[in-house]
Amino acid sequence: MEVNPPRCRVIDLNSRNGTLHNGLRVKTADVVDGDEIGAGHTVFKVVVFADSPQQPPTLDLPASGNLTDDQTGDYEAHPTIPGHKIEGEIGRGGMGIVYRATCLADGKTVALKTISTAREVNRKQIDRFLREARILGELNHPNIVGCREVSEVGGIVYMTMEFVNGSDLESRLKSEGPIDLRTAVRIICQALGGLAHAHARGFVHRDIKPANILVGRDGSKRSAKLADFGLARAYETSKLSGLTMQGEIGGTPLFMSPEQVTHYREVKPAADQYSAAATLYRLLTKQYTHDFPRGIAAQLAHVVSVKPILITARRADIPTELGAVIHKALSQDASDRYPNVMAFRQELKRFA
C-alpha cells in the first residue's frame, strides 16, 4: 500500500495469490475509504484519515520575465535574477529549469536552477526544491556538484551551482555507445567517493543513474560529479518525511534497489550502492540490469521479484571477476552487498 492521505493506492508486486480490490484481482488500483483489499485468506478494510481534505496549496509565482513582441507560442523568457546574467537554457526536468549564467560579482560561469516558470507551483514542489538546495549546501566534495547559493527573489526560488563543462553519462551513452571498461570503472569509483562523503553525513542520494553523473574537465583531468541531490534525504530521519505515491517514491525504477521499492521511507546507503552498480552495468553494456516490462508498476514489481541478468551475458568481454563484483553490489538482499560503498570501490579499483 502506498499511503499519502487522502490518496491511497495498492500495488501487487507479482504475489503468488494475487491482490483483490473489492473482489476483483488487480495489479494496481486507487483505493478509497471503505474499500476492501484481499491478500490470500486475509481481507483488509480501508479506513482513510486526512488532516485536511483540501488540495495542496499553490504559490502564485510571477511570470519570470516579459516576452518580446516576437516571442509567442511556447517560448519562455529567461528569469531575471539579481547579480546574474542568464546566458541560455541547459536543460529542464519535471520540476525545474537549469540555465547557464554568469555571476556578476566574480565573473564565474554557474548553473542556475529555478522552479518551473509556470504561474502555479504547489507547496510540495517548493519544499522539494529547497530540500535539494539545503542538502547540496552541506556537501562539499570534488565528486559532487557544488552549491554556491540558494535564495528567492520576486517569488522565484533559485539556486546557483558549480557549472560542469561536460555532459551527463546517459547522453554520452546515446551518442557514443558503451564505455570502455577502464573508463567506466574509473568514473564509478569517483562517484562512489562522492557517495561515501554524503553517506558519512547521513545522506542517501536515492537516484543514482547515468543521467545524474556529469563528466567534465577539472584542470587537466576529467572528473565525474554527482548531480541532482533533489531526491536525497537524511536517512536517519526518513521515517518522518518522504514522497509516498507511485512516481514520487524517490528514484528511477530502472536503477532502484528492491528495498527502495518496498521500504522507500527507510532507504539506507546500500540502495545507492545497488544503483551505482546498476549504473556501471549500463555504462558497460548500454542495457539495463533487467529486461524491464513497460509501465512503472510492472517495473517496480520486476525489481523486487527478478534477479538481474548476468552482465557477461550482455557483454562477453567483461572479466568474470568484475562481473562477480558488480553482481555482489546488485544483490537482492542489501545484507549480501558490500558493507559500504568504499568497500565496493576498493574491489572495483582492481579493474581501473
- DSSP strand (E) fraction? 25-35%
**Estimated structural class:** alpha+beta
- Major sheet description: 5 strands, antiparallel
Count of distinct strands = 19
GO molecular function, one term: ATP binding
InterPro entries: Kinase-like_dom_sf (IPR011009), Prot_kinase_dom (IPR000719), Protein_kinase_ATP_BS (IPR017441), Ser/Thr_kinase_AS (IPR008271), SMAD_FHA_dom_sf (IPR008984)
Pfam families: Pkinase
Keywords: ATP-binding, Kinase, Nucleotide-binding, Transferase
Task: Give your account of this protein's structure.
This protein is of the alpha+beta class. It is 28% helix and 25% strand. The strands form six sheets. Strands 9-10-11-14-13 form a five-stranded antiparallel beta sheet, covered by helices on one side. α3 packs antiparallel against α5 and α3 packs antiparallel against α9.
Layout: helices, strands, pairs:
Layout: E1 2-4, E2 7-11, E3 19-21, E4 24-26, E5 28-31, E6 36-39, E7 42-45, E8 58-60, E9 84-92, E10 96-103, E11 109-115, E12 120-122, H1 123-138, E13 147-153, E14 156-162, E15 166-168, H2 169-176, H3 181-200, E16 203-204, E17 213-218, E18 221-226, E19 233-234, H4 258-262, H5 269-285, H6 296-305, H7 311-314, H8 320-329, H9 341-348
Antiparallel strand pairs: 1-2, 2-5, 3-4, 3-6, 6-7, 8-12, 9-10, 10-11, 11-14, 13-14, 15-17, 16-19, 17-18
Helix pairs in contact: 3-5, 3-9
What labels describe this entry?
single chain, 352 residues, alpha+beta, Phosphorylase Kinase, domain 1, Transferase(Phosphotransferase), domain 1, five-stranded antiparallel beta sheet, four-stranded antiparallel beta sheet, 19 strands, 28% helix, globular
